[in-house]
Amino acid sequence: MSxxxxxxxxxxxxxxxxxxxGFTVLQSCLLSLLTFSGASQFAVIGVIGAGGSALSxxxxxxxxxxRNALYGVIMxxxxxxxxxxxxxxxxxxxxxxxxVALGQEPHGVDAMRKGFWYTGFGVFVFWNLFTLAGxxxxxxxxxxxxxxxxxxxxxxxxxxxxxxxTGNFERALAVGCAIFAIAMTPILPAGLPIIAxxxxxxxxxxxx
Amino acid sequence: xxxxxxxxxxxxxxxxxLKYSGHSVPERWLTHPKIQKVNALIPIALLSALVAVQxxxxxxxxxxxxxxxxxxxxxxxxxxxxxFPVVVLSAAVSxxxxxNWF
Lengths: 208, 102
Fold this sequence. Notes:
The complex is a heterodimer.
Chain A: H1 2-20, H2 25-35, H3 38-49, H4 54-79, H5 83-91, H6 95-103, H7 109-141, H8 149-161, H9 168-184, H10 192-207
Helix pairs in contact in A: 1-2, 1-3, 1-7, 1-8, 2-7, 3-4, 4-10, 6-7, 9-10
Chain B: H1 3-24, H2 33-56, E1 57-58, E2 61-62, H3 66-79, H4 84-101
Antiparallel strand pairs in B: 1-2
Helix pairs in contact in B: 3-4
């Protein structure tokens, strides 16, 4: 239940932010149906909204989507599905479904499968319904700044990154990347300052 | 085709290919500790950069406006361990208040 409410809130925030950044209601809903990965969706609308190219938007979103591939590696041997079922399993392989499944590990593989499918489908339904609500709401608003929507988007990003800042190293990386991106914004084409920070992460990750 | 359509379709295609590849490649390809480490750090870097750019710039220009107040409200809410909806709402309400009244 608490997962659903949180997902709903993210969905509303995403739908509203997508429209605020120039996407149509249809495009916002297609992103939620087809991309179905919160951080990637926020990233692509954020980069495009800041004036970045389609390519830098797609690249940033895809870098954030790499973790879903790793979730697939964890889930595949437990689900053991083929064909169309594997296609559907792949589409609902996200933070929440994998997280709940791993939480069920002590109860055996059947409980893990159940957790994965129920959470995956549940989040899918909530996420898409609330995206539509948020997109329609923002469309009706007009000047989004009068409703604080321009601040809701960075706040959503902050809410996504906050739980990952588990130690001083992570916090230092976050602050460093934020400063780097701001410093590069007047110099590099829009979108590139953001993608460049992924390479900082790769460099420090490999070195450490 | 507009930039918005290219972004929508391209992002969706890449997202699915990444998800599906995880279900299809041999496990040992992606479980190397270095890859796990880098994978944990990439979202931190990208999301922090997005927070900063979305708060302090418009197109390629740096600026400070009502969004700074929203960001401070969000940080305060997170420090007080508020749930996500409260974090976003406090940012929106405080920023809208500054925008409408000043």
